[in-house]
Amino acid sequence: MGFRDDFVWGAATSAYQIEGAVNEDGKGVTIWDEFCRQSGKILNGENAATACDHYHRYKEDIALMKEMGIPAYRFSIDWARVLPEGTGTVNEAGIRFYDNLVNALLEAGIEPYMTLYHWELPIALERRGGWMNPEIVEWFGDYAALIAERFSDRVTHFFTINEPQCFVGLGYLTGGHAPGMKRSLSDTLLMAHNVLKAHGRAVQRLREKAKRPIEVGYAPTCGGVYPESEKPEDIEAARRSYFSIPEDGNWTWNVPWWSDPVLLGHYPKEGLERFEAYMPAVTDADMKLISEPIDFYGQNIYNGWCVRAGKDGEPETVERYTGFPRTACGWPITPEVLRWAPRFLYERYKKPIYITENGISCRDVISLDGKVHDPQRIDFTARYLRELRKAADDGADIRGYFYWSLIDNFEWSEGYSQRFGLVYVDYRNQQRIPKDSAEWYRQVIQTNGEYI
Ligand code: FCB
After folding, report:
1. What are phi and psi of 295, to 5 degrees?
2. pLDDT value of residue 85
3. Ligand 1 atom closest to the CA of 359, numbered from 1
4. pLDDT lower than 50: segments of the chain
5. Predicted local confidence at residue 4, as pLDDT
6. What is d(CA 82, CA 146) in angstroms, rounded to the nearest whole number?
7. Per-residue model confidence (pLDDT) at position 50
């Protein structure tokens, strides 16, 4: 048992977090460009104008991946780099950048996994109503068609949308991310519906224009849930809790609202009842579009909470003990989540699963010896991967794992304060230093996970 022989080992990034070159070669302005310009939005007043300068250094970054023996790379396209206005005229210089990137990856023997939307909406579309405007379904569909036309001769694996929970919840409900709005429940439910329809339309248009057979997936997120024990009642309580919708706070932070429509063709009943008065009009045709079949299911999983069956049998959250382990950004370290969440997802949605993101931010520094020692990252990843292997042993169809991130990068409103990379970036001079974890991951990959 253990990981499949063809298990996909990868590393992930996203366009806005690494590329820089925000004003170069005809790239259009995005909501993140504008958000970074507003004072007080990004920690220390930082921005992504240069980020990791990957736009000019992609060859070096690919060479690093090759040295690490990483066989798969998940990255995203900046919509406004290829379509500056979001629709209409194509920016050939932007296409050329991704062409060069894809070609260099393939030359290095690295399989590209391309994400269409990792949060930087072209500002021109935001001004036309963005995700509130139902026309976005076709805007996104046309963008997907362009991507298939230009890249599907070489790229086989596509993801439509990354973490709708975050860009709707943080961007338009709590306001901590671009474009920094606090909209109503009914507005965000309408946006969510348009996001889901846009996903479905992109699946259709990708397939319609594909030059070869392609595989299409989706990459949502959410905290996971794991049971306190292996008693059936605790497992059931954890499962129920994982697929429920929070009663207060940020409603977007859940799995079923974003995944049941895509995989099961309907919204979860619990949410429909709670949100009844705020729901947009939903037609059968919408649900058919949203549930356009996909090939695999991606989930970004960083941590989760522990649940047991309470005295009344209802799920009860187990409190974290004093001094509970946490990452540099304060996220709890909960390896068990990588056993149980994928298993629950596989049971419910019955699709092959990729862990499309998982990783840790550490207070990495360059040591006296010039190296970056990150034992905590190695320990974190080993613990999580051991649990993921158990999920595979339990029978879940786990196809791959993408460590977040290949390199340190611009962590959205946290600026450059959080280092998630296997490779350290010295932002003073853009020097890359593979951390100890890079060599460790190389061995994990080489032994197909035996090394952990
Ligand atoms: C995820 C995002 C990714 C990165 C990691 C740390 O929510 O998809 O861009 O910020 O968290």
Report:
1. -90, -35
2. 98
3. 6
4. none
5. 97
6. 9
7. 98
178 Cα: distance to centroid of ligand 1 (angstroms): 14
- Encoded tokens for 164: 């709708």
Neighbour count for residue 204 (Cβ, 10 Å): 15
Distance between CA 109 and CA 411 in Å, rounded? 28
Say whether 217 sits in a helix, a strand or coil: strand
Q: Give pLDDT, residue 91.
A: 99
C-alpha of residue 231 to centroid of ligand 1, in Å: 33
Give 158's strand partners: 114, 216
Task: Locate the ligand 1 atom nearest the alpha carbon of residue 420 and give its number.
Answer: 6
Eight-class DSSP state of 8: E
Which residue has tokens 């970074």? 36
Contacts of residue 273, Cβ cutoff 8 Å, sequence gap at least 6: none
pLDDT of 1 reads: 82
DSSP H helical segments within 117-184, as ranges? 123-127, 136-151, 164-172
Max CA pair span of the chain: 63
Residue 404's DSSP bridge partners are 12
**Is the distance from CB of 237 to CB of 315 less than 8 angstroms?**
yes
| pLDDT at residue 63 in the model | 98
The whole-number pLDDT of residue 248 equals 85
